[in-house]
Amino acid sequence: MDYKGSAGFMEIGLSRKGMDRRIGPMDIHRLPSATKEVRSLFADDLTAPADLCLVTPDEPACSGAGPQLCRSAQEMEPGILVPSHRGVDSTRLLLSVDGQHPSLLLKTIQPDQRRFIDAAASFDAQRKAAGLGCAPKILAIDARRATCIMEYRDGWATARVSDLKKLDVLNEVIGVKRRVHGGLRFTIPVSPFDRIRALKQECDRLVAQAPPDLPVLFEQVLRFERMIAASGVDSVPSHADGLASNILIGPDGRIELVDFDGAGNVDPYYEIGILINEVFEDEKDFLPALEMFEGTPRPASLRRVRLYAIADDLAWGLWGLVMDATSQRKDVEFYRYGFWRFIRCRAALGSLDFGSYARML
After folding, report:
1. Do domains 5-152 and 161-360 have the same CATH topology?
2. Which of 119, 166, 246, 318 has CA 20 to 30 A from 262's CA?
3. So where are the chain's domains?
């Protein structure tokens, strides 16, 4: 999620209780066309605090409704995939309060991502993380339309890989993720290998020009699943997202997590593996981060996070191919992103000693 604003406004309203009826957020995909789509018929399953409802600007609040919270919505910058994965999975609008600086953020998961994301589970996970002080609080949810309204962190910065290379920042990020691990369990399990299998099936069905060595990469990575399972696997509630752009850094250095679209109960070493994979390219650089995570790093832990990192590269490579073949958003360089992740996966597999990894896990 990218916390940088841009021009362009669309009127919607957000007011205190007192309305005769309750309506939810409209299904917004693109701001330029969304102005024409303002209508009075919205989802009826909005889950929100009792004093929160949405109104269209041409429908004034009933007498006694209290102060109007929102007068305009401002679209945030479009997502990019190359050279970094930022803001691609959702449309984000900043909501202003009585003409003041934006204080709320409306997020709608992109239609082409909804088959990959359980919106209800994502929003539930963020609510639980927010209760631990690890994420912005969600104020309203329309799971059917994959939409939520949350607190906007004005003045906070979207993390970049260069930020996470600073060990003090990385230590704070790992600390926040560990706090989530100790919280309430999330509603769904997460398996990186199930994700790979599902994406491979879609790739076989939809992609005309996949890398010729994809079957080999696929079979090698699925060996990791058997190796890891043989050594035992725990699961904890996890953000399960390695992208730097889904980490916020406050003016005081405080860290929060956003976009829980991949969140679920999973091996904690998967969480740390995909985070380290985002930040470092050389395995020797994994050790300081692993030490932050478990104290004294164990060789078996290092190998496990390395296997998860390679699996994550394959998963994103497959995702890039599938999205390139199916998405209507032809301005997003899905293929190029997937190709880059395949290069990383291929190089890492080429340097892997399967025998020693199997013994040391």
Report:
1. no
2. 166
3. 5-152, 161-360
Per-residue b or e along 256-281, where b marks 16 or more CB atoms closer than 10 Å to that residue's CB? bbbbbbbbbbbbbbbbbbbbbbbbbe
| pLDDT at position 96 | 73
Quick check: 59 pLDDT over 80? Answer: no
* Tokens found for residue 332: 């997003």
Q: Is 158 helix (H, G, I), strand (E, B) or coil?
A: strand
- The fold adopted by the segment(s) 161-360 is Aminoglycoside 3'-phosphotransferase; Chain: A, domain 2 (3.90.1200)
**Global confidence as pTM:** 0.79
Tell me the three state secondary structure of residue 336.
helix
Distance CA 241, CA 219 (A): 24
- String of DSSP letters for 17-75: S--SS-B-----S-HHHHGGG--S---S--B--TT-EEE-TTSPPPTT---EEES-EEE
Q: What is the mean pLDDT of the chain?
A: 79
First to last CA, the chain: 35
The CATH code of the domain at 5-152 is 3.30.200.20
- Name which of 94, 143, 87 is nearest 119 in CA terms: 143
The stretch 57-69 carries a mean pLDDT of 35
Which two three-digit tokens encode residue 345?
């996966």
Q: How many helices (H) and strands (E) does the chain have?
A: 11, 14
91-94-95-99 Cα dihedral, nearest 10 degrees = -150
CB within 8 Å of 208: residues ≥ 6 apart: 325
Supply φ then ψ for residue 33, to 5 degrees.
-95, -10
